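Just wondering, does anyone understand these tokens?
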Amino acid sequence: MIFNSLIQPHFDYCCVVWDKCNKTLSDKLQKLQNRAARILTYSPYDASADPLIESLGWKKLENQRKVKKAVMVYKSLNSLAPSYMRSMFIDRDGLINFSLRDTEGKLAIPKPRTNYLKNSFSYDGAILWNSLPIELRQAKSLNLFKTGCSGFFK
């Protein structure tokens, strides 16, 4: 209850900021969540955190960040976000005049020349979107998409 009311909102609110942090900082954040799971379950310090996090019904922070990003891409593509966000993504079908296999609902991935583009939402969001199964990309509502993403990113 304490974690859900005091700590989890910070992870949810800041997941966009922490999404592109380096590996060291990401590991520190995960260690914080692991420590919270051990404290709340009265487990010893050397206990594995993965089963504890699962028993508490939490998601690992990396998966939380992926779900939040996928939801933001879904909102952008379905006019649930500002229009400038929709303009960040281009349908792969609109780029070519002939049909290819497995392009339904996928986005064109911009060619990065710098690390700045690799860290951008338009690049990372398109890669994440294309990794989702077709049924999830074609979800009819935001709630169905969120439920599907929660199951996909365990």
Notes: The chain has a mean pLDDT of 85.
